[in-house]
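User: ok so my PI wants both of these folded by tonight, can you help

Assistant: No problem, let's get them done. Here's the first:
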Amino acid sequence: MGAYGLPSDVIKGGIPISGLFDLRPFRYSWLQPKLLLTHETIARESPLFLVEQAPKLPPLLTTLGGDESAEFHRQSSDFSDQWRLFGGEATGLDQPGKDHISAIAGFEDPGSTLCCAIKDFTNRIQSKRASFD
């Protein structure tokens, strides 16, 4: 049992959309005077640096808009690579023509690339669980 009496595998999968996984660049951005990020805060709060501490890594579907900045693409790629390095399954979905705001727009259309990818992802998770039951 993990924290709060929950099993360590209570989370069966994750779908970060346009995620920020590495806070280091923010220390040098226009937001730093408001965020006041320290080296310690960045290390403690950046998901990229927490992967190796996870007791179990559920499958991930990482997605972002194709028109997002190179930094968003780097962070998603690095996070997925780190996830796989520590034994997790991570797949990516690039959404051409989408940006940080519109990357979630596919939720309103069940036939969209995003919804279809999410359905496939959850079906794979269900299939894996069923084979263990």
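One down. Here's the second:
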Amino acid sequence: MKVQSAYKSSKDKERALASYESFLSQWPVPYQARLINTSFGETHIIVSGSPQAKPLILLHGGGGNSTMWMYNIEALSKSFHVFAVDIIGEAGKSAGMRPSFKSEGHARWLKEVFDALGISKAVVCGASLGGMLAHQFALQYPQSVSSLVLLAPPSLFKMRPSFLFRAILASVFPTSFFARRFLHYISSKASSFSEEAVKAFIIQFQAYKPNMDAIPIISDNDLLRLPSKTLVMLGENEVIYNPIAVASRICSVTPSVAIDIIPGAKHTISVDQADLVNQKILQFLG
């Protein structure tokens, strides 16, 4: 397994991490930044909430980092000891090692993170790519997951060609213009973002070296093996696939998995409808 930088150059990495720090300075609750060693490389974690509370692991989307949970952390950390983990090989502060999505690499990495943090069992919540890695972890280490929350993971259904085309176009031409257009395409809240938040997205987008590994679609058999307490949340206006078709597939295979369609949200549902998503997560886990 190769160590591959998630950034196009050292200069790009420097710009992206400076933007990360600037955005993190606005984290709305007290936090501790931790850096732990794993056999896959260093892993950066933002820790918030009471150590006496139940642990909650947050896994961000592809091409992003843990600052995406800025809009959720205040509500979630009132009830949980929250660990927002920068995924290895993505645009955060963790190592650049990129296991294949078809392998057990990410699951083994996350188990090492659990062990280093002294966590035997936790709620695991993942958004987009983080959702796929969350359910892979739950299938590989079921004894470590008390509940599972999946926010629009791309692994539930074949992705739309229109989404793939736009994603590739924006990656090939990562100008400010295309980055802004892509942000508006995936988020219904993009027009209300502060200019600082938009610029942070553009810097991250331009600095990131896309991971071209194919996303595997979860099998029916694995859907049946998901934890008994699993919630899947999908945006009403999801762009990567048809949310109704996804919900129909899940219901036909495993009626025990709870499904919630979030009105007015596109792909970035935890940002698009942060208050509603926070409320639904807490109710489900309550």
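The longest helix spans residues 10-24. The chain has a mean pLDDT of 95. Good luck tonight!
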